C-alpha cells in the first residue's frame, strides 16, 4: 500500500514537526508551497513550487505525486476549500484540514471548551469566520468520498510566531523587550486565561491523526492539556530568559479605545481579552499514548535559543503601539 502525504503549505510553525514525524513513520512526504523556505526541509521531502491561488499547479502536483493523504495548512477562504475538495474528492484515504479554535467564537460557551459545545453565534475576526465557512464546504461532502479530519490548533508559539496581547506583528519583539527590561503591556490584571502550546507538539498531534481510522469524520482541538493566565505566559518567557518582567497593567477598554488606528485592529478584539481554555480530551481519548515531546518551559528555551542564533537580540528595540499606550496611561497618573 502506498503511503504518500502531500502537505499544502510549509515548512511553517506547525507543519515542520508534522513533516518530521511523518518521515519518522516512513511516509513519503511532499510539500506544495512557495519555495522561499524549501531549504529548511529535510532532503527526503519532495517539493513542488506554487502559490495557493495557482489552481493548475496545485492540481498538477496532486496528479504527479498521487498522495494518499493531504494535509492542508493554508486553506483560508471557502473558494480555496471548494477547489481542493474537487481535486481530492474520491481520490485520497484522508483529507486533514487545519482550522482554528478561533471559530468557536468568544466568549467561549464552556471553560475549557470541548469540540461538542455550542459555538458563539458570531466570530470576532474575518479569519475565524472564513475558517467556519471552509469547514462547512468540507463537511457538506463528508458523505461523498471525502474522508475528513478537522484539526483546530490552540495558540502554539514557535521560533517565528510569538504573540503579544495586542498584535501578532509585535509578538516576535516580545522576547527582546523582556531581555532589555522594556515595559510589557498586560491587559487588566493579567488573570485572564490563555491556552498556550508548543508548536512542535501541536504539529506532532497533527501527524498522529494521519491514517488513524478513529480520526476519519472527526474533529480535534490540538494543544497542550493545560492552560495558564496572561501573567503566567509572560512569566514562562521571562523565566526562560532568566529575567524579571517589567509588567504594566492597562485596562482593556483603555487599550482598545486608544486614539490610534492600531487600537481598532488590536488582537484584544479578536481573542486576548477573553478567557481562553480548550479541552483536549477527545484527542487524548482517541490517542491515549501520545506524548508531548517538549514541556512549555523547555520549548520556550528552544525558541529563545533559536532567536538568539538568528540575531534577534542584537537588533535595536523599536517603539510599538504598546509603548504609546503605556506612556499615555502613565502621563495621566
Major sheet strand order: 3-2-1-4-5-6-11
Query: Major sheet: size, sense and barrel closure?
Result: 7 strands, parallel
Distance between the termini: 70 Å
In the CATH hierarchy, the architecture of the largest domain is 3-Layer(aba) Sandwich
Oligomer: single chain
The share of residues in helices is 25-40%
SS content category: alpha/beta
Q: CATH topology of the largest domain, which one?
A: Rossmann fold
Number of helices: 13
Give the total of beta strands. 13
Structure description:
This protein is an alpha/beta fold and 333 residues long. It folds into two domains: 4-157 and 197-222, 3-Layer(aba) Sandwich (Rossmann fold), CATH 3.40.50; 171-195 and 228-274 and 296-328, Alpha-Beta Complex (UDP-galactose 4-epimerase, domain 1), CATH 3.90.25. The protein is 37% helix and 16% strand. It is built from 13 helices and 13 strands. A seven-stranded parallel beta sheet has the order 3-2-1-4-5-6-11, sandwiched between helices. A two-stranded parallel ribbon has the order 7-10. α2 (55-65) packs parallel to α3 and α7 crosses α12 (296-309). The chain is globular and about 70 Å long. The model has no long low-confidence stretch (mean pLDDT 95).
Amino acid at each position: 500500500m502506498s503511503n504518500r502525504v502531500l502537505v499544502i503549505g510549509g515548512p511553517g510553525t506547525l507543519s515542520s514537526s508534522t513533516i518530521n514525524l511523518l518521515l519518522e513513520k516512513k511516509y513519503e512526504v511532499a510539500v506544495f508551497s512557495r519555495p522561499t523556505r524549501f531549504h529548511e526541509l529535510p532532503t527526503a521531502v519532495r517539493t513542488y513550487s506554487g502559490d495557493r491561488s495557482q489552481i493548475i499547479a496545485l492540481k498538477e502536483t496532486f496528479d504527479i505525486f498521487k498522495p494518499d493523504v493531504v494535509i492542508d495548512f493554508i486553506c483560508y477562504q471557502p473558494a480555496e476549500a471548494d477547489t481542493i475538495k474537487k481535486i481530492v474528492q474520491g481520490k485520497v484515504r484522508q483529507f486533514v484540514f487545519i482550522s482554528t479554535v478561533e471559530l468557536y467564537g468568544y466568549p467561549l460557551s464552556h471553560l475549557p471548551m470541548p469540540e461538542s459545545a455550542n459555538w458563539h453565534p458570531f466570530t470576532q475576526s474575518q479569519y475565524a469566520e472564513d475558517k467556519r465557512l471552509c469547514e462547512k464546504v468540507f463537511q457538506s461532502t463528508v458523505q461523498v468520498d471525502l474522508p475528513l479530519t478537522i484539526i483546530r490548533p490552540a495558540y502554539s508559539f514557535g521560533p517565528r510566531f510569538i504573540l503579544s496581547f495586542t498584535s501578532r506583528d509585535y509578538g516576535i519583539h516580545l522576547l527582546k523587550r523582556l531581555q532589555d527590561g522594556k515595559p510589557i503591556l498586560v491587559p487588566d490584571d493579567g488573570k485572564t486565561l490563555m491556552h498556550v502550546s508548543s508548536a512542535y507538539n501541536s504539529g506532532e498531534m497533527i501527524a498522529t491523526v494521519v491514517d488513524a481510522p478513529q480520526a476519519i469524520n472527526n474533529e480535534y482541538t490540538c494543544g497542550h492539556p493545560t492552560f495558564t493566565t496572561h501573567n503566567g505566559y509572560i512569566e514562562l518567557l521571562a523565566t526562560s530568559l532568566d529575567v524579571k518582567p517589567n509588567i504594566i497593567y492597562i485596562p482593556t477598554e483603555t487599550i482598545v479605545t486608544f486614539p490610534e488606528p492600531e487600537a481598532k485592529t488590536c488582537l484584544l478584539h479578536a481573542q486576548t481579552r477573553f478567557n481562553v481554555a480548550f479541552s483536549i480530551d477527545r484527542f487524548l481519548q482517541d490517542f491515549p499514548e501520545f506524548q508531548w515531546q517538549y514541556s512549555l518551559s523547555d520549548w520556550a528555551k528552544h525558541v529563545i535559543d533559536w532567536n538568539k542564533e538568528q540575531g534577534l537580540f542584537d537588533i535595536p528595540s523599536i517603539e510599538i503601539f504598546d509603548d504609546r499606550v503605556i506612556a499615555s496611561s502613565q502621563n495621566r497618573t
